Amino acid sequence: MWKVPSIARMRNGRRSTLEIDREEKSHKSTRRNQKSQTRLGKELGTIKRVIIAGLHDEKSSLNRLRGMNSILRKIWGYLLDLWARYIVIGDAEQLPFKISGEVKFPRPSNININMMPFVFGDKKSIPKKYRQYWPLVRKCSSKGNRGKVGYLTIHESWILPGTSQRRPGLHCESPGMVGYRCGGDTMVVPSPPTTPEWTYEEAYERVPREIVLEVGWGGGSTGTLSGTIPKRKLAELSRYLPPKETEFSSGPSTGIYMASTLSDTLRVFQAKVSDSEVISSNGDLEHIRSLVSKTGSLIKAGDLVWMTDRTPHESLPVKRKVYRQYFRVVTPSVTAWYKDHSTPNPSVKPHVKYIITGNKFLPHMCKAHKTGLNIR
Q: Which of 27, 220, 249, 289 has its CA 20 to 30 A from that of 148?
Protein backbone atom coordinates (compact mmCIF):
# COMPACT_ATOMS: atom_id res chain seq x y z
CA MET A 1 0.00 0.00 0.00
CA TRP A 2 1.56 3.29 -1.08
CA LYS A 3 1.67 6.29 1.23
CA VAL A 4 0.66 9.84 0.47
CA PRO A 5 3.70 12.15 0.10
CA SER A 6 4.61 14.08 3.25
CA ILE A 7 3.72 17.78 3.36
CA ALA A 8 6.79 18.80 5.38
CA ARG A 9 10.40 17.81 5.65
CA MET A 10 11.21 15.39 8.44
CA ARG A 11 14.06 15.79 10.88
CA ASN A 12 15.14 12.53 12.49
CA GLY A 13 11.65 11.21 11.95
CA ARG A 14 10.00 14.24 13.58
CA ARG A 15 9.18 17.78 12.58
CA SER A 16 10.62 20.56 14.69
CA THR A 17 8.29 22.61 16.90
CA LEU A 18 9.10 25.70 14.81
CA GLU A 19 8.04 23.93 11.61
CA ILE A 20 4.75 22.81 13.20
CA ASP A 21 4.00 26.33 14.46
CA ARG A 22 4.74 27.87 11.07
CA GLU A 23 2.61 25.26 9.31
CA GLU A 24 -0.34 25.77 11.67
CA LYS A 25 -0.22 29.56 11.24
CA SER A 26 -0.07 29.19 7.46
CA HIS A 27 -2.95 26.70 7.47
CA LYS A 28 -5.12 28.92 9.66
CA SER A 29 -4.50 31.97 7.47
CA THR A 30 -5.22 30.07 4.24
CA ARG A 31 -8.32 28.45 5.72
CA ARG A 32 -9.64 31.76 7.05
CA ASN A 33 -9.12 33.58 3.74
CA GLN A 34 -10.65 30.84 1.59
CA LYS A 35 -13.62 30.42 3.95
CA SER A 36 -14.42 34.11 3.79
CA GLN A 37 -14.08 34.17 -0.02
CA THR A 38 -16.26 31.07 -0.41
CA ARG A 39 -18.92 32.41 1.96
CA LEU A 40 -19.00 35.78 0.22
CA GLY A 41 -19.24 34.11 -3.20
CA LYS A 42 -22.13 31.87 -2.12
CA GLU A 43 -24.05 34.68 -0.44
CA LEU A 44 -23.63 37.23 -3.21
CA GLY A 45 -22.05 36.15 -6.48
CA THR A 46 -20.59 38.57 -9.02
CA ILE A 47 -23.91 40.03 -10.24
CA LYS A 48 -25.26 40.75 -6.76
CA ARG A 49 -21.97 42.29 -5.68
CA VAL A 50 -22.13 44.66 -8.66
CA ILE A 51 -25.70 45.70 -7.75
CA ILE A 52 -24.79 46.30 -4.10
CA ALA A 53 -21.69 48.27 -5.12
CA GLY A 54 -23.87 50.37 -7.43
CA LEU A 55 -26.35 51.09 -4.65
CA HIS A 56 -23.56 52.57 -2.54
CA ASP A 57 -21.85 54.45 -5.38
CA GLU A 58 -23.21 57.98 -5.70
CA LYS A 59 -22.04 58.13 -9.32
CA SER A 60 -24.05 55.04 -10.27
CA SER A 61 -27.64 55.20 -11.51
CA LEU A 62 -28.38 52.28 -9.17
CA ASN A 63 -27.76 54.61 -6.22
CA ARG A 64 -31.25 56.09 -6.77
CA LEU A 65 -32.76 52.71 -5.85
CA ARG A 66 -31.06 52.52 -2.48
CA GLY A 67 -33.63 51.64 0.17
CA MET A 68 -36.28 50.66 -2.40
CA ASN A 69 -36.17 46.95 -1.59
CA SER A 70 -39.51 46.10 -3.22
CA ILE A 71 -38.32 47.53 -6.54
CA LEU A 72 -34.97 45.74 -6.26
CA ARG A 73 -36.75 42.43 -5.61
CA LYS A 74 -38.84 42.94 -8.75
CA ILE A 75 -35.73 43.74 -10.81
CA TRP A 76 -33.99 40.62 -9.50
CA GLY A 77 -37.09 38.58 -10.30
CA TYR A 78 -37.10 39.89 -13.87
CA LEU A 79 -33.43 38.93 -14.20
CA LEU A 80 -34.09 35.41 -12.96
CA ASP A 81 -36.94 35.03 -15.45
CA LEU A 82 -34.64 36.21 -18.24
CA TRP A 83 -31.78 33.87 -17.27
CA ALA A 84 -34.18 30.93 -16.92
CA ARG A 85 -34.93 31.15 -20.65
CA TYR A 86 -31.31 30.30 -21.43
CA ILE A 87 -30.85 27.39 -19.03
CA VAL A 88 -31.42 23.91 -20.44
CA ILE A 89 -32.33 21.34 -17.80
CA GLY A 90 -31.20 17.81 -18.69
CA ASP A 91 -33.61 15.06 -19.65
CA ALA A 92 -33.32 11.52 -21.01
CA GLU A 93 -32.07 12.66 -24.41
CA GLN A 94 -30.10 15.77 -23.50
CA LEU A 95 -27.68 15.29 -20.59
CA PRO A 96 -25.33 18.23 -19.83
CA PHE A 97 -23.27 15.85 -17.69
CA LYS A 98 -22.88 12.08 -17.51
CA ILE A 99 -20.92 9.44 -15.66
CA SER A 100 -18.95 7.81 -18.47
CA GLY A 101 -17.26 5.12 -16.38
CA GLU A 102 -14.81 4.57 -13.55
CA VAL A 103 -11.05 5.14 -13.40
CA LYS A 104 -8.20 3.96 -11.18
CA PHE A 105 -5.67 6.60 -10.17
CA PRO A 106 -1.90 5.97 -10.11
CA ARG A 107 0.33 6.64 -7.12
CA PRO A 108 0.50 10.37 -6.30
CA SER A 109 3.69 12.40 -6.64
CA ASN A 110 2.54 15.98 -5.93
CA ILE A 111 1.93 16.79 -9.61
CA ASN A 112 0.34 20.13 -10.36
CA ILE A 113 -0.12 20.91 -14.07
CA ASN A 114 -2.90 22.83 -15.75
CA MET A 115 -4.15 22.78 -19.36
CA MET A 116 -0.97 21.17 -20.70
CA PRO A 117 -1.37 20.44 -24.42
CA PHE A 118 -0.95 16.85 -25.67
CA VAL A 119 -1.98 14.81 -28.71
CA PHE A 120 -4.85 12.34 -28.44
CA GLY A 121 -3.67 8.85 -29.34
CA ASP A 122 0.02 9.69 -28.89
CA LYS A 123 1.36 8.58 -25.51
CA LYS A 124 4.79 10.06 -26.26
CA SER A 125 3.27 13.53 -26.56
CA ILE A 126 2.91 13.52 -22.76
CA PRO A 127 6.17 14.00 -20.77
CA LYS A 128 7.40 10.80 -19.06
CA LYS A 129 6.81 12.13 -15.54
CA TYR A 130 3.06 12.33 -16.27
CA ARG A 131 2.55 9.20 -18.37
CA GLN A 132 1.23 7.18 -15.42
CA TYR A 133 -2.04 9.01 -16.18
CA TRP A 134 -2.18 7.74 -19.77
CA PRO A 135 -4.75 4.98 -18.96
CA LEU A 136 -7.09 7.72 -17.70
CA VAL A 137 -6.45 9.87 -20.76
CA ARG A 138 -7.35 6.95 -23.04
CA LYS A 139 -10.77 6.73 -21.41
CA CYS A 140 -11.40 10.32 -22.50
CA SER A 141 -10.46 9.67 -26.11
CA SER A 142 -12.68 9.09 -29.12
CA LYS A 143 -12.00 8.31 -32.78
CA GLY A 144 -12.93 11.86 -33.69
CA ASN A 145 -10.13 13.27 -31.52
CA ARG A 146 -7.29 11.04 -32.66
CA GLY A 147 -4.30 13.18 -33.70
CA LYS A 148 -5.83 16.39 -32.32
CA VAL A 149 -4.55 18.51 -29.43
CA GLY A 150 -6.24 18.13 -26.05
CA TYR A 151 -5.40 19.68 -22.68
CA LEU A 152 -4.43 17.79 -19.51
CA THR A 153 -4.79 18.94 -15.90
CA ILE A 154 -3.47 16.96 -12.90
CA HIS A 155 -3.64 18.33 -9.36
CA GLU A 156 -2.32 16.27 -6.44
CA SER A 157 -2.26 18.04 -3.08
CA TRP A 158 -3.37 18.17 0.53
CA ILE A 159 -6.61 20.00 1.29
CA LEU A 160 -7.10 21.80 4.59
CA PRO A 161 -10.39 21.60 6.54
CA GLY A 162 -12.99 24.06 5.31
CA THR A 163 -11.27 24.60 1.95
CA SER A 164 -11.58 23.11 -1.53
CA GLN A 165 -8.80 21.96 -3.81
CA ARG A 166 -10.24 23.51 -6.95
CA ARG A 167 -12.32 26.60 -7.61
CA PRO A 168 -15.24 26.97 -5.15
CA GLY A 169 -18.61 28.48 -6.01
CA LEU A 170 -21.00 27.69 -8.84
CA HIS A 171 -19.34 28.20 -12.22
CA CYS A 172 -18.78 26.70 -15.65
CA GLU A 173 -15.49 26.22 -17.50
CA SER A 174 -16.28 28.59 -20.35
CA PRO A 175 -15.72 32.23 -19.31
CA GLY A 176 -18.29 33.31 -21.91
CA MET A 177 -17.82 36.70 -23.60
CA VAL A 178 -14.58 38.36 -22.46
CA GLY A 179 -12.89 41.56 -23.62
CA TYR A 180 -9.09 41.68 -23.90
CA ARG A 181 -6.56 44.20 -25.08
CA CYS A 182 -5.04 43.42 -28.46
CA GLY A 183 -1.50 42.12 -28.32
CA GLY A 184 1.18 41.51 -30.91
CA ASP A 185 -0.20 41.20 -34.45
CA THR A 186 -3.79 40.72 -33.27
CA MET A 187 -4.62 44.32 -34.21
CA VAL A 188 -4.81 44.57 -37.99
CA VAL A 189 -4.75 48.01 -39.61
CA PRO A 190 -6.84 48.25 -42.82
CA SER A 191 -4.77 49.03 -45.89
CA PRO A 192 -5.90 50.72 -48.05
CA PRO A 193 -8.28 52.65 -45.73
CA THR A 194 -11.81 51.22 -45.67
CA THR A 195 -13.24 54.70 -46.33
CA PRO A 196 -11.68 56.81 -49.17
CA GLU A 197 -11.70 60.05 -47.18
CA TRP A 198 -9.67 58.44 -44.35
CA THR A 199 -5.92 58.78 -44.31
CA TYR A 200 -3.86 55.77 -43.27
CA GLU A 201 -3.26 57.37 -39.85
CA GLU A 202 -6.99 58.02 -39.38
CA ALA A 203 -7.79 54.42 -40.29
CA TYR A 204 -5.22 53.25 -37.75
CA GLU A 205 -6.86 55.32 -35.03
CA ARG A 206 -10.25 53.79 -35.83
CA VAL A 207 -9.04 50.21 -35.38
CA PRO A 208 -10.25 48.87 -31.99
CA ARG A 209 -7.52 48.29 -29.42
CA GLU A 210 -9.71 45.72 -27.68
CA ILE A 211 -11.20 42.46 -28.82
CA VAL A 212 -14.22 40.64 -27.39
CA LEU A 213 -13.98 36.86 -27.52
CA GLU A 214 -16.53 34.16 -26.86
CA VAL A 215 -14.13 31.69 -25.29
CA GLY A 216 -14.82 28.00 -25.82
CA TRP A 217 -13.33 25.61 -23.27
CA GLY A 218 -14.01 22.19 -24.73
CA GLY A 219 -17.52 22.84 -25.97
CA GLY A 220 -19.72 19.80 -25.76
CA SER A 221 -23.18 19.09 -27.11
CA THR A 222 -25.75 17.47 -24.86
CA GLY A 223 -26.04 14.34 -26.99
CA THR A 224 -25.73 10.78 -25.72
CA LEU A 225 -22.51 9.24 -24.46
CA SER A 226 -21.02 5.81 -25.13
CA GLY A 227 -20.48 3.40 -22.27
CA THR A 228 -22.50 1.81 -19.50
CA ILE A 229 -23.73 3.65 -16.42
CA PRO A 230 -22.37 2.08 -13.20
CA LYS A 231 -25.16 0.25 -11.35
CA ARG A 232 -24.82 2.40 -8.25
CA LYS A 233 -25.49 5.46 -10.42
CA LEU A 234 -28.73 4.21 -11.95
CA ALA A 235 -30.83 5.25 -8.98
CA GLU A 236 -29.28 8.71 -8.94
CA LEU A 237 -29.81 9.21 -12.67
CA SER A 238 -33.21 7.52 -12.88
CA ARG A 239 -35.03 10.84 -12.99
CA TYR A 240 -33.18 11.68 -16.22
CA LEU A 241 -33.25 8.29 -17.94
CA PRO A 242 -36.12 6.21 -19.32
CA PRO A 243 -36.62 2.78 -17.68
CA LYS A 244 -33.97 0.16 -18.57
CA GLU A 245 -31.93 2.63 -20.62
CA THR A 246 -28.36 1.98 -19.48
CA GLU A 247 -26.44 2.11 -22.76
CA PHE A 248 -25.39 5.31 -24.52
CA SER A 249 -25.11 5.35 -28.27
CA SER A 250 -22.05 7.36 -29.29
CA GLY A 251 -18.98 8.90 -27.68
CA PRO A 252 -18.52 12.69 -27.80
CA SER A 253 -15.40 14.26 -29.24
CA THR A 254 -16.09 17.56 -27.46
CA GLY A 255 -16.60 18.54 -23.85
CA ILE A 256 -14.66 18.03 -20.62
CA TYR A 257 -13.79 14.94 -18.58
CA MET A 258 -12.84 15.00 -14.90
CA ALA A 259 -12.41 12.67 -11.93
CA SER A 260 -10.92 12.64 -8.42
CA THR A 261 -9.98 10.27 -5.62
CA LEU A 262 -12.41 11.75 -3.07
CA SER A 263 -16.17 11.38 -2.94
CA ASP A 264 -18.47 14.34 -2.42
CA THR A 265 -15.86 16.98 -3.28
CA LEU A 266 -17.44 17.83 -6.64
CA ARG A 267 -21.07 18.70 -7.34
CA VAL A 268 -22.28 18.83 -10.94
CA PHE A 269 -25.67 20.14 -12.04
CA GLN A 270 -27.79 18.56 -14.75
CA ALA A 271 -28.15 21.84 -16.63
CA LYS A 272 -26.50 23.86 -19.37
CA VAL A 273 -26.30 27.59 -20.03
CA SER A 274 -27.26 28.13 -23.67
CA ASP A 275 -26.36 31.83 -23.94
CA SER A 276 -22.98 33.30 -23.00
CA GLU A 277 -24.68 36.51 -21.85
CA VAL A 278 -25.84 34.60 -18.75
CA ILE A 279 -22.25 33.72 -17.80
CA SER A 280 -20.63 36.25 -15.49
CA SER A 281 -16.94 37.03 -14.92
CA ASN A 282 -14.65 34.03 -15.50
CA GLY A 283 -17.56 31.61 -15.73
CA ASP A 284 -19.27 32.64 -12.47
CA LEU A 285 -22.84 31.32 -12.22
CA GLU A 286 -23.74 31.99 -8.59
CA HIS A 287 -26.57 34.25 -9.73
CA ILE A 288 -28.46 31.27 -11.24
CA ARG A 289 -27.96 28.87 -8.32
CA SER A 290 -31.64 29.00 -7.36
CA LEU A 291 -32.58 28.01 -10.93
CA VAL A 292 -30.45 24.83 -11.03
CA SER A 293 -30.10 23.83 -7.37
CA LYS A 294 -32.48 20.86 -7.61
CA THR A 295 -30.46 19.22 -10.40
CA GLY A 296 -27.16 18.85 -8.49
CA SER A 297 -25.42 15.50 -7.97
CA LEU A 298 -22.41 14.66 -5.80
CA ILE A 299 -19.68 12.78 -7.65
CA LYS A 300 -18.09 9.70 -6.07
CA ALA A 301 -14.41 8.79 -6.00
CA GLY A 302 -13.20 7.27 -9.27
CA ASP A 303 -16.24 8.32 -11.31
CA LEU A 304 -15.22 9.76 -14.68
CA VAL A 305 -17.56 12.65 -15.41
CA TRP A 306 -18.22 14.10 -18.85
CA MET A 307 -19.76 17.57 -19.09
CA THR A 308 -20.06 20.52 -21.44
CA ASP A 309 -18.04 23.68 -20.89
CA ARG A 310 -21.31 25.41 -19.90
CA THR A 311 -22.42 22.87 -17.29
CA PRO A 312 -22.62 24.40 -13.77
CA HIS A 313 -20.45 22.68 -11.17
CA GLU A 314 -18.52 23.49 -8.00
CA SER A 315 -15.64 22.16 -5.93
CA LEU A 316 -16.71 21.53 -2.33
CA PRO A 317 -14.79 22.09 0.94
CA VAL A 318 -13.61 19.11 2.99
CA LYS A 319 -14.26 18.54 6.69
CA ARG A 320 -10.83 17.23 7.56
CA LYS A 321 -7.31 17.40 6.20
CA VAL A 322 -7.11 14.97 3.25
CA TYR A 323 -5.04 14.28 0.16
CA ARG A 324 -6.78 14.48 -3.21
CA GLN A 325 -5.86 13.63 -6.77
CA TYR A 326 -7.75 15.49 -9.47
CA PHE A 327 -7.69 14.75 -13.20
CA ARG A 328 -9.20 16.65 -16.13
CA VAL A 329 -9.03 16.42 -19.92
CA VAL A 330 -10.38 19.22 -22.11
CA THR A 331 -11.12 18.18 -25.68
CA PRO A 332 -9.77 20.12 -28.72
CA SER A 333 -12.61 22.68 -28.92
CA VAL A 334 -10.66 25.39 -27.09
CA THR A 335 -10.62 28.97 -28.38
CA ALA A 336 -7.98 30.53 -26.12
CA TRP A 337 -5.08 29.27 -23.99
CA TYR A 338 -4.12 31.29 -20.91
CA LYS A 339 -0.32 31.28 -20.99
CA ASP A 340 0.24 32.55 -17.44
CA HIS A 341 -2.13 29.96 -15.96
CA SER A 342 -1.22 26.92 -18.06
CA THR A 343 1.61 24.39 -18.24
CA PRO A 344 3.62 24.39 -21.49
CA ASN A 345 4.60 21.15 -23.21
CA PRO A 346 7.99 21.26 -25.00
CA SER A 347 6.79 18.88 -27.70
CA VAL A 348 3.22 20.12 -28.27
CA LYS A 349 1.98 23.66 -28.84
CA PRO A 350 -1.57 24.70 -27.92
CA HIS A 351 -3.84 24.52 -30.96
CA VAL A 352 -5.94 27.61 -30.30
CA LYS A 353 -6.97 30.79 -32.04
CA TYR A 354 -5.67 33.12 -29.32
CA ILE A 355 -2.93 33.03 -26.68
CA ILE A 356 -3.96 35.14 -23.68
CA THR A 357 -1.21 36.67 -21.53
CA GLY A 358 -1.76 38.18 -18.09
CA ASN A 359 -3.97 37.32 -15.12
CA LYS A 360 -7.22 35.85 -16.47
CA PHE A 361 -9.05 37.01 -13.33
CA LEU A 362 -8.22 40.59 -14.40
CA PRO A 363 -9.27 40.43 -18.07
CA HIS A 364 -8.84 44.18 -18.57
CA MET A 365 -5.13 43.64 -17.91
CA CYS A 366 -4.80 40.71 -20.31
CA LYS A 367 -3.69 40.75 -23.94
CA ALA A 368 -5.00 38.51 -26.71
CA HIS A 369 -2.40 37.35 -29.25
CA LYS A 370 -3.73 35.87 -32.48
CA THR A 371 -2.05 32.60 -33.53
CA GLY A 372 -3.32 32.55 -37.12
CA LEU A 373 -5.11 29.22 -36.61
CA ASN A 374 -8.78 28.96 -37.53
CA ILE A 375 -10.34 27.19 -34.53
CA ARG A 376 -14.07 26.69 -34.28
A: 249
